[in-house]
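Lecture 7 notes: from sequence to structure.

We start with a single chain of 375 residues. Read the sequence below before looking at the structure.
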Amino acid sequence: MIDFNVPPFAGKEIEYIREAVAAQKICGDGMFTQKCQAFLRDLLHVPAVYLTTSCTSALEMAALLCRIKPGDEVILPSYTFCSTADAFVMRGASLVFTDIRPDTMNIDETRIEDAVTEKTRAIVVVHYAGVSCDMDPIMEIAGRHKLKVVEDAAQAIGSTYKGRMLGGIGDFGCLSFHETKNFSMGEGGAIILPNLDQRDEAEIYREKGTDRSRFFRGQVDKYTWQDFGSSYLPSDLNAAYLYAQLEEYDRIFADRMHTWEVYNEAFKPLRDRGAVELPYIPETCTHNAHMYYLKVKDLEERTKLLAHLREQGVLGVFHYIPLHSAPAGRKFGRFHGEDVFTTRESERLLRLPLYLGISEADREKVIRSVFSYFD
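Now the structure, written as tokens:
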């Protein structure tokens, strides 16, 4: 069976974990945490990035920094992972789901403003498959209504919008380093601060409500409990694993992009026949080859194709069930406007195996298996 995903391994992960152990500093904010954060700051061209225990943790920190409180409303797409919503529900917010664009599967920027009310406090955008939302109009809407913008860039490290790295455009950005992502620390993430106005506040939330980070920088003579917070620091062992991959950023990026491009070229005849739709990349965007997906006619055909692939020894998967149709989505939110594309498009989409080091033979088998279904 060709797996859908194989966690990335660049080569020096075990060596760096040993170095972290030898340094006798394996808790949070050790030397590899600092190295990862410095790399990400340079990559994203932002003043502050903090590793977290997950992208979920980063989103929770973003909700805290947005000062979300019970009764507030947050606008977001329904087509996303539950963590996007959970972080704001935990602060007592009501969720306002809006429809997506069928071309990118991202939030439809033209539907956002109509969903704004006097209770709205934030817009949460999700850059699906590493392809950017249309950020300029979203930032303009946020500016007019004095709203925060949180970028859920879990899938989007290295992707750009009009030359700007995703995660560094809104008020806060959140990355994922889960084992299914382009770069992994097993479980982990990062919060991005495009400006330093809330750096001290972010550090307090991340350090269990204390000013411990300022103490380690010599800015205070002792650290104390300042506010509420949690333990959002990952182990330096996890950071050591991640840093081995960040050092190989260009090679990993190129490897994934090659697979993406091989798939995209191979499936053009099926697109031309009208059998499938291929991913769409707007001219204003570059992507990071996070995933490769196909869209087929409908849910019935997707179910049959996934079963066919499994029979051929290929593990394909579908993706999110829209949140507004889930029990928790109905409990904590509402869908604003008409669900024209969210459910329909989500039922047509299936993802193909794509990971660092997938062999040419396995890529060709995936391609042959898809064609054999339609032929």
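The first strand starts at residue 48 and ends at 52. Keep this in mind for problem set 3.
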